[in-house]
Amino acid sequence: MEHTTVIPPAEIEKQLDYCRSVAAITAQWGEKPLAFVDTYGCQQNEADSERLRGFLAKMGFGFTGSEEEARIIVINTCAIREHAEQRVFGNVGALVHVKRRHPDTLICLCGCMAQRPQVAQKIRESYRHVDLVFGPQSLWKFPEMVHGLLTQRGRTFSVEDEPGSIAEGIPVVRQDRIKAWVSIMYGCNNFCSYCIVPYVRGRERSRRPEDILAEVRQLVNEGYKDITLLGQNVNSYGKDLDEPMDFAGLLEQVNAVPGDFLIRFMTSHPKDATQKLFETMARCEKVAPVLHLPFQAGNDRILKVMNRRHTRAEYLEKIKALKALIPDIVLTSDVIVGFPGETTEEFEDTLKVLEEVRFDALFTFIFSPRPGTPAAEMDDPMPREEKLANFNRLTALQDSISEEKHAAYVGKTVRCLIDGASDDARYDLTARTPGNRLVRVVGDPSALGQFRDVKITGANKWSLFGELV
Known about the structure:
By secondary structure, this protein is α/β, with parallel strands linked by helices. The chain folds into four domains: 150 residues, Rossmann fold, CATH 3.40.50.12160; 113 residues, 2-Layer Sandwich (Transcription Regulator spoIIAA), CATH 3.30.750.210; 115 residues, Transcription Regulator spoIIAA; 56 residues, CATH 2.40.50.140. It contains 14 helices and 19 strands. The strands form five sheets. Strands 2-1-3-4-5-6 form a six-stranded parallel beta sheet, sandwiched between helices. A five-stranded mixed barrel has the order 15-16-17-19-18.
C-alpha cells in the first residue's frame, strides 16, 4: 500500500501568504468584493466548497448568491452523470454575458468535471471567458492561482493527472451552523466500470485520525449537532496510514469525543462493510442508526461486469447481520437501471432485492455513460424506452415501500434534530430523525439547533409530519 503524500505545513502557510497578498489587492477596490460559489454533486463537493469559501474569506471576499454582484465566480462541478455536466456547460456558457458586462469578474471552474481532459480542452477552446480551471487535487493551491490571475495576464489550467495528496490547515467557511461535513479520506481505488471518480479524484488517501478528531472536537465545541464523516468509500479508511487503523476504530474514537451530537457517515462499499463495523455501530450510542450501502444491481452477472466485487447473496447476508444487531436500522441505497447489456429479466433481480431488504429510501439512476470508463465502451442494446419503463417500475415499488415504512412512524414520539425553517407554510420547522428521515414540524422556531421530542402525526412517501412535544 502506497503512503499518502501530505502537503507540508509550510506550503499551506505559503497559500495563506497569497491570501494576504490578494486581500491587500482587493482592499484597494473600494467596497468589499463579493464571491459566488456554486456547487454541484455530492457532499464531498460541498465540503470542498467550504474550503474554497475559507480561502476566499481570507482573500478579503464576502459572499453573495448573485453572479451579477460577484467579483469572482467559482463553479464547483460534478462528473458523475451526463445531465449534471450539460447543466454546468449551459450555466458556464451563460456567464459570457456577465463577463461582457463586468470584464474584471474572474470566472473559475473546478471540481471533478474540470479534472477530465476532454472538459478542460473544451473550456480552453470554446469558453474563453473562463479564467481558471482546476481539479480537486489542486484545490489547496487556489490562493496562488487567484493571485496569479490578478497580477499577471492570461488564463490558468491546473488539471495535471496526479494521484492526489492530503492538505491540512485549509480555512473553512461552513454554510450550516447545525450540521457539518468532515472529510476523512479522498479518492477511490475501486474502479467500478461505470464510475469516473477514481480518474478525477485520484487514489484513496486517508487523513490522520488525530486531525479528524481535532476537527470533530472543534465542531462540537462550536455547537454542531450532526457530523457526517465523508469518503468515497469510508470502509477502506486507514489502509495507507503509517499506523493502520480501520474505519470501525475511527468511528469508536469519534464516538468517544465528549458532547451531545450524532455521527453519520457515507459512502460505504458492501465489499468492505464488515461485521466489526456493524458491531461498532450497534455499540456506539452517538452513531446514527442509518446506513447508506449502495448495491447498484441485484443480478450477479451485472454486478461482475460493473466490477462491484460483491454478489447479491453476500450483500443480503450483510444486511441480515446488520438488522440482527440494529433492528431499527434505516437503510438507503443506490441503484443503476439499464447498465449496458442488462436484460429486463436481470433487472427483475433488482426488484427482488428491494422486496427482500425493504429500503427506507433509494437513490435511483438510469445508466449514464462516462467517457473514459470501461462501461462507456460496452454494447448497450436495450432501448431507452425499455430502460425508462424498468426505472418507473423500480421507483413505484420503492415509493410504496417508503410510504409503508413512513406510515409506521405515525403516533410515535421520536427524538429529532430541529435543523431548519420549513419552506411549507403549514409547518414552522424541518427536523431529522436519527435515521435521517425528514420531518416537517409545527412548533416554536426557538427550537432550531436542538434535539427535541417530536410526535409524528402524519406521513407520505417522502417525509413525516409532526409537532414538538
